[in-house]
Design goal:
The structure holds two protein chains of two kinds. By secondary structure, chain A is mostly helical. Chain A has a domain at about 80-280: MetI-like (MetI-like fold). Chain A is built from ten helices and two strands. A two-stranded antiparallel sheet of chain A has the order 1-2. Chain B contains eight helices and 13 strands. Chain B has helices at about 55-65, 95-100, 110-125, 140-150, 170-185, 200-205, 235-245, 260-270, and strands at about 1-5, 10, 15-30, 30-40, 45-50, 70-80, 80-85, 160, 190-195, 205-210, 215-220, 250, 270-275. In chain B, the strands form three sheets. In chain B, strands 7-8-9-5-10-11 form a six-stranded mixed β-sheet, with helices on both faces. In chain B, a hairpin with a 2-residue loop joins strand 10 and strand 11. The chains are: A mainly alpha, B alpha/beta. The interface between A and B is medium-sized, with 21 and 21 residues.
Chain lengths: ~290, ~280
């Protein structure tokens, strides 16, 4: 039993109304069953279970005839489509092209976002000049820029990289800026009293202090860039995963369309894992709450 | 070599003087916090600056430390000075050793010599084995010892201590007092210790300065014999004098027989009642 009734003092007068403070009910601070069990499932296994359940439901609904194969392709059909395109060499080449576009666009977006965040984070003048412009630009829907991007940059690689860069840079800017401004002034002051130069303060205290926020921005930017690449490739492209999806639409190949989406999902998962790895390496000094 | 707290022009001053501050004034939004403070500290003197919260103790320390440029008056301090704050203010993403040597140039001996210096300072506070730990893994007392090492490694001619033990538990505080006394005896810097703990001031300092509403109300030598004992009549008398100056009234005049800081704390609460001027 987890609850023990303990009578601390017997009242000498039996018919005296019992005083509640005479009886102390003892209980465990945390009920036993809620305490941690020693049996633990490995983290990776737990993280894989959710997606596996979704996959199983997906396969089952297709096999059971809930959807026709034209409406929804089953996971097995999607894998078959991927194998077919891989054997033709189409999948690899288009995947590489999409990856390159994201890498280039993200590279530009991150660089520009960090530069502007540092400018407006470190200097009041920078903030006054840069911040309103970026806040206004951020409100413009990027997809609305697609026609303009084509007029400005033609139909080659440039408009795609431009759009991806734009789709990732704001998340980087906003988070890095907030990170810089959130650095504890007490630490900056300590750095000053111990003789750090201005550049030393930026390099040893301010930028490392803003790193956690930057990494949050990087995660959002990765999601944003994959979002934009598919749109950019569906609108005007002769290559890339988005192009494969558009091609599949004209030939009614639901399996290929869904394969394209599955690839995006897997890449998104991998990108997230990459940032998690970065966080673990770069932020090992932190001792923060990691979830129960 | 003396410099104005927030300038780098070196000015030669009277030999053996670590702080020469005259008519220091500072106001925040029209409220005068320091109203013309004059303070001279000799080269190896340990001065405790007492005062209730809001009387300008920390403001004065920040001016001497070069953290506040908006003061009036004339302030001269040594170029080599170090501050220990109430919170350790260690940089969480730098290892303990890197924190200790923060901002020091590599000098002639290069990185190895700098590392050796840092390790030596950490050894002095008994934390050499924690050199490669992250600061967030240290306890409050350990962090404060690292902060002391970070100050000492600079061989300061003036150490500014802003309630450095205020956030520590009573038992750790006793150990820290002993450590600070050992370190000061070895390095002999001038020390300005800002505190609101009268016993701490009498235990450690050569001189006590009481700041009341931005002005020095009392400036006295502490002539209690070493090793200082809280039950020494001279100790009790000076404590009463300082407390009176700080506006705290004694309610019960039993002779004091206190041995630990926590005793002092409870006794203080029992025996004195705050009276606000």
């Amino acid at each position: 039993m987890s609850v023990i009734d303990l009578v601390t003092r017997k009242s000498s007068n039996e018919d005296e109304k019992s005083n509640s403070s005479d009886v102390i009910t003892l209980t465990h601070p945390i009920p036993k069953r809620r305490r941690r069990t020693s049996l633990r499932v490995p983290r990776l296994v737990r993280r894989v279970v959710g997606p596996l359940i979704v996959l199983a439901l997906w396969q089952w609904s297709c096999s059971a005839g809930v959807f026709t194969s034209f409406e929804v392709a089953s996971p097995i059909a999607v894998i078959d489509a991927a194998r077919e395109l891989w054997n033709q060499g189409v999948l690899q080449s288009n995947l590489l092209i999409s990856l390159r576009r994201v890498a280039e666009g993200l590279g530009v977006g991150v660089t520009v976002g960090v530069i502007f965040a540092v400018l407006s984070g470190l200097f009041r003048v920078g903030e006054d000049l840069v911040d309103p412009v970026i806040q206004a630009a951020r409100a413009v829907p990027i997809l609305g820029l697609v026609p303009l991007a084509i007029i400005w940059f033609g139909v080659g690689e440039l408009p795609k990289i431009f759009l991806i860069a734009l789709g990732s840079t704001f998340a980087i800017y906003i988070n890095t800026f907030a990170g810089i401004r959130g650095v504890d002034t007490k630490l900056v002051e300590a750095g000053q009293t111990f003789g750090l130069s201005r550049w030393g303060l930026v390099r040893r205290i301010i930028l490392p202090g803003a790193l956690p926020s930057f990494l949050v921005g990087l995660r959002l930017a990765l999601v944003g860039s994959w979002l934009i690449v598919i749109v950019a490739e569906e609108i005007n492209a002769q290559s890339g995963i988005g192009y494969l999806i558009m091609q599949a639409q004209t030939t009614d190949r639901t399996d290929i369309m869904m394969m394209g989406l599955a690839i995006y999902a897997i890449l998104g998962l991998l990108a997230d894992a990459l940032v998690r790895l970065l966080e673990r390496r770069l932020l090992s000094w932190r001792r923060t709450f990691a979830g129960a | 070599m003396m410099t104005r707290a927030n300038e780098v022009t070196p000015i030669n001053s009277t030999l053996g003087t670590a702080v020469a501050a005259s008519n220091v004034q500072r106001s925040f939004n029209g409220r005068d916090v320091l109203k013309g403070v004059n303070l001279t500290i000799k080269g190896d003197e340990f001065v405790a600056l007492l005062g209730r919260s809001g009387t300008g103790k920390s403001t004065l320390l920040r001016i001497l430390g070069g953290l506040d440029a908006d003061y009036e008056g004339d302030v001269l301090v040594p170029q080599r000075r170090a501050v220990v704050f109430q919170e350790s203010r260690l940089i969480p993403w730098q290892r303990v050793l890197a924190n200790v040597v923060l901002g020091l140039g590599t000098g002639n001996g290069g990185r190895a010599a700098l590392k050796a210096r840092g390790l030596e300072a950490l050894g002095e506070v008994g934390l050499a084995e924690h050199a490669h730990d992250w600061p967030l893994t240290l306890s409050g007392g350990e962090s404060q010892r690292v902060a002391l090492a970070r100050a000492l490694v600079r061989e300061p001619q003036l150490m500014l201590l802003d309630e450095p033990f205020g956030a520590l538990d009573a038992l750790t505080r006793i150990k820290m007092h002993a450590l600070l006394q050992r370190l000061c005896a070895r390095h002999r810097p001038a020390v300005l210790l800002v505190t609101h703990d009268v016993d701490e001031a009498i235990l450690l300092a050569d001189r006590a300065v009481v700041l009341v509403e931005g002005e020095i109300a009392l400036d006295t030598r502490i002539d209690v014999e070493h090793p200082r004992d809280r039950s020494d009549p001279a100790f009790v008398e000076l404590r009463n004098r300082l407390l009176k100056e700080l506006g705290v009234q004694e309610v019960d005049a039993r002779p004091s027989l206190l041995h630990t800081a926590s005793d002092v704390e409870t006794e203080f609460n029992n025996r004195y009642k705050q009276s606000f001027r």
